[in-house]
Each structure stands twice: as structure tokens, then as C-alpha cells.
Amino acid sequence: MTRTIRTGPAPDQSAAELLAAVRPYAQPDPPALSLPPQMFTSPEVYELERQRIFDRSWIMVAHTDQLAEPGDYLSLSIAGEQVAITRGEDGRLHGMSPVCRHRAMPLVEPGEGKVKDFTCSYHLWRYNLDGTLRAATYMRENAEFDPATCRLPGFAVREWHGLVFVNLDAEARSFEPDLAIADTEMTNYRLDDMVQVNHWTEEWACNWKVAVENGYENYHAIGFHPETVRPLMTGGIDMTVHQDSEWVTRLLSGAGTPFEAKILPLTEAERSIMYSFRIFPGGAVATFGETIAWISIIPLSLDRTQVRGGTLAPRQALEYVDLEVMRKEVESITSVINAEDRTGLEAVQRTLGSRFLQRGHLSPKEPGVLAFYRKLALALTEEG
Q1: Contact 256/233 with Cβ under 8 angstroms?
Q2: Are 91 and 216 in the same domain?
Q3: Taking the mean position of all CA atoms in its chain, how far away is CA 114?
Q4: 5 belongs to a structural domain
Q5: Which domain covers residue 75, as residue numbers?
Q6: Are residues 100 and 204 in the same domain?
Q7: Which of 28, 221, 366, 376 is least crowded, fewest Cβ atoms below 10 Å from its Cβ?
Q8: Does any domain span residue 12?
């Protein structure tokens, strides 16, 4: 049977119609077409993504170096939901909703820092670093108020080889089984002994999927990054795609000229590839010889996306190079690459409302994009 896929301009489509167009990506023989343009602009689709993806997915948000000591905290928004992660006095990481239980005042602004507790600036209620209530001013005369049961709603938090993940579903199952293959294959990179050289947080004016699908292919390096990323790809822009589970995809690209390995016990094969894995919806970890980059793409709204990331290096490397010198060198590169992606992807977003826009045919150089579409289709169209 021949399958017919509409590629031309379409009138405004309902969320149900858009999901019907996305469903074929979950099949063994998906259409080699880009997503319907309205998948990036539909408020109804975005609301479904919030419910079916971001309310129950593991989101990579930081490296443990950012939350090393008791009192260290990180605050961010995940698809409109405020999230705080702290290193408690007990040494553990805690995830919570940083919104006062009294009158909905945010306890902390987005960012990171160090605190003894979270004190509400509205009525001075105070919460411990694990989300439990420490003090509620002038509440003793309210007989119906029980401070022992008043605490900030908790989220699931896990560390994986120094990378910190949060899930809005406090009862979410662990993601470690999905990363079993990647975990084994990255043994020689010694992630547990890596230090974070730099990290960044940026806001891009595009839908989160515009940014994510860009990261699933090397094809754009010839256009966006001709003098930065493209020279690293001496082995070409092809990639090998392995879909390990509903959540994890491994992408392997040939480096051509092997990377140097002075500290890590990398094999010749490991020095000759750029190895990366993606954790749906927007997390990525990639190797460049002895350097590791992590990046996380998190929606703020329908057309605003936060891009978080960092660069890791072997701890032993700091015995030979000053950390500040290394940080400046890394930042000079990553800032340029990020700016190249941001400029291009924001331009894409500006065209997505065009009534003349149609679905594009994908190149054979973009198998990773179809891998992302498959996971998106599975997440959005599963029953229930």
C-alpha cells in the first residue's frame, strides 16, 4: 500500500490532526519529512507536551560541581513549572516547588547561589533546604493549620556520574537502565572524576523542538558552523544512530583525525569518534577526545527555550593547566558556537508562521532527526 503524506501548506490544524500526522514517526518505516510546521507554533500541542512529556520526564539541569556544598541551590523553570534543587544539610540533593504554600509567592528567583533556607519575602515564612517548613509567622492561632504537614511539593532528583537530573513526577522510575549501554561504553571517559570547567544558561527565541532536532544532526555544521564545528568533522558529517530505548539515543560520528588522549585510557576507536547520547526530551552528552560537553534544552514557553550546558575535563588536567585559563579558552569557543546556533534557530522560528511553509524532505544525513521524531511521537501519542 502506498502511503500519502501531505507536504503542502495547510490551514490551522487541531492538536488531534497534528498528532495524527506525527504518529507515523513511531512506525518502522517513518516518513522522511520534517514535522508539520504547526507542531512548533500550536499552543494546544505545547500544552500536551507539558502534560505528556515535561511533567514526567527526566531533565538534565546541572553538574554536581554547581551543587557541591550544603546550601547550594539551583532554580529554573521547566515548561512553566518553577523548580528548585538544593544540596541539603544531609548532603543529599532535594528537588521541590519553590512557591510558598501560604499565598503563592516565589521563594527564589531563577538562577543559582547559596542559602541557609528559603524565606518568603511576602510574609516571612521559612522553609528548610529539604522543603520542610521551618517557621510560619503568626499562624499559631489558626487551629486548622498543621505545620508538620506543610512542606514544599517534592520532585525526584538523581545524580548520574556527576550530572544532575530532575523529574516533576516524584514517583518517576529510574532512567539508569535506559543508559546501561552508554554507561558501559563511556567507562574510559571516567565521568565521575571530571570537573566542570565552565557552564552557561541562555534563552533562545525558538520552540524547544527547533533546538533539539538541530542537535540530532551534523548536517547543519556546514551552514551554521563552517569555521568552528565543521573543521572537527574531518571524518565527514555522517552519523550512526542507535535507539537504545524510548528515552535514549546514541549518535556516533567519525572524527577522522584521532583526538589526543594524554590522561584518559581511551582506545584508538574512542579517539577516532565523537560519541554522544541523548536523553529525551532535550538532554545531550558528547565527547570530544578528553573533553565532555553536556547540554540541556528546556522550554520556558511555546517560543522561548532555555539552553543550559557545561564543559567537563579530567581532574588531572588541572595539574598542568590553570582552571581560569582553561575556562577562558573553553568559553571563547562555546560562546561562538552557541551564538551561531541561536542566530540560525531564531531565524527558523520567525518563519514558522508563514502560510506558505510546508513540510521539508529530510536528507539521508539526518537519521538522528527521525530518531528524535520517533521518541516525540511515542511520548505524545501513547494512550492515556
Answers
A1: yes
A2: no
A3: 23
A4: no
A5: 68-159
A6: no
A7: 28
A8: no
* Inter-residue contact 220 to 368 (CB < 8 Å): no
Q: Is residue 11 part of a domain?
A: no
> Model's pTM, two decimal places?
0.93
The torsion angles phi and psi of 300, rounded to 5 degrees, stand at: -100, -35
What is each CA distance from 164 to 183, 294, 355, in whole angstroms? Answer: 15, 11, 41
382 Cβ partners below 8 Å, 6+ apart? 52
Instruction: Name the grid cell of 276.
Output: 554522544
Q: What is the pLDDT along the chain (384 residues), one digit of tens a residue?
A: 444 444 444 557 899 999 999 999 999 999 999 999 999 999 999 999 999 999 999 999 999 999 999 999 999 999 999 999 999 999 999 999 999 999 999 999 999 999 999 999 999 999 999 999 999 999 999 999 999 999 999 999 999 999 999 999 999 999 999 999 999 999 999 999 999 999 999 999 999 999 999 999 999 999 999 998 888 777 789 999 999 999 999 999 987 788 889 999 999 999 998 899 999 999 999 999 999 999 999 999 999 999 999 999 999 998 888 888 889 999 999 999 999 999 999 999 999 999 999 999 999 999 999 999 999 999 999 754
User: In terms of domains, do 115 and 196 share one?
Assistant: no
Q: Indicate whether 30 belongs to any domain.
A: no
Give the domain CATH number at 146.
2.102.10.10
